[in-house]
Amino acid sequence: MSNQSTNPTPQARITSTLKSMITPCGSTDLPVIFEIINDSARAYKGVIPADRWHEPYMPMAELKSEIGKGVRFYGYYSDGRLEGVMGIQDVKEVTLIRHAYVRSECRGQGIGGKLLTHLNQLSGRPVLIGTWKAATWAIRFYETNGFVLLSNGEKNRLLTSYWTIPDRQIEESIVLADKRWRNHANKLPDPTSPSVTPAAGAGGAPSVAADH
């Protein structure tokens, strides 16, 4: 009888670990990020207002611009293939979850939840997510993962404070927040108080889908 150990070799353990992983995306991933975003965003067609839809949903120039503004993309890789992406961006004192998309054929495998958990753990700040109010599947996803849908008034204030988007998009959007935001918001002055100056518009921009 062989006395060979049944424990996997170090190389086997590494291979097993790397079957699926989340890691920062690099410049060489840009064409695949572009592909995943525009494949997944087809779910919006016929759902969001027609004047907000265009093809491709996110042109390459816009994707590069978002990265240039500070959006850092993380990817979920399975057997070396990029299957989902999610961006994170620090704006003022909060962190925004940006442009979250999973390949159409890979939906329902928990990829979005794993990416969201990973990015949430990277930030010690309050986390906000903006998406289309018509994207009910995305809203349910974030609520299932502990985010709370904010009031219309608070949504309007946040979208003008932490995002730079057209008024039409603000009308058609919602914002969700994590528990850290609720704790943070409770410490803020009442924005309706005459002594408080409303926050000015800030840089940043808007996507499963945190699309703002």
Keywords:
Aminopeptidase, 212 residues, single chain, alpha+beta, seven-stranded mixed beta sheet, 7 strands, 21% strand
Strand order in the largest sheet: 1-2-3-4-5-7-6
Helices, by number, come to 8
Rg value: 19 Å
User: What's the end-to-end separation, in Å?
Assistant: 62 Å
Global shape: globular
| H and E order | HEHHEEEHEHEHHEH
CATH class: Alpha Beta
Report the sheet with the most strands, covering strand number, pairing sense and barrel closure: 7 strands, mixed
- Judged by helices, strands and strand pairing, the structural class is alpha+beta
Ranges where pLDDT stays below 50 over 5 or more residues in a row are: 1-17, 191-207
Count of beta strands: 7
Share of β-strand residues: 15-25%
Number of domains: 1
> Could you say what the CATH topology is called?
Aminopeptidase
What is this structure, in a nutshell?
The protein is α+β, with helices and mostly antiparallel strands.
Task: Describe what you observe in this structure.
- The protein is an alpha+beta fold.
- The protein has a single domain, classed as Aminopeptidase, CATH 3.40.630.
- Helices cover 34% and strands 21% of the residues.
- It has eight helices and seven strands, in the order H-E-H-H-E-E-E-H-E-H-E-H-H-E-H.
- A seven-stranded mixed sheet has the order 1-2-3-4-5-7-6, sandwiched between helices.
- The N terminus is likely disordered.
Produce the secondary structure layout.
Blueprint: H1 10-17, E1 20-24, H2 30-40, H3 60-68, E2 72-78, E3 81-91, E4 94-102, H4 111-122, E5 127-132, H5 136-144, E6 148-149, H6 152-162, H7 167-171, E7 173-177, H8 179-186
Parallel strand pairs: 4-5
Antiparallel strand pairs: 1-2, 2-3, 3-4, 5-7, 6-7
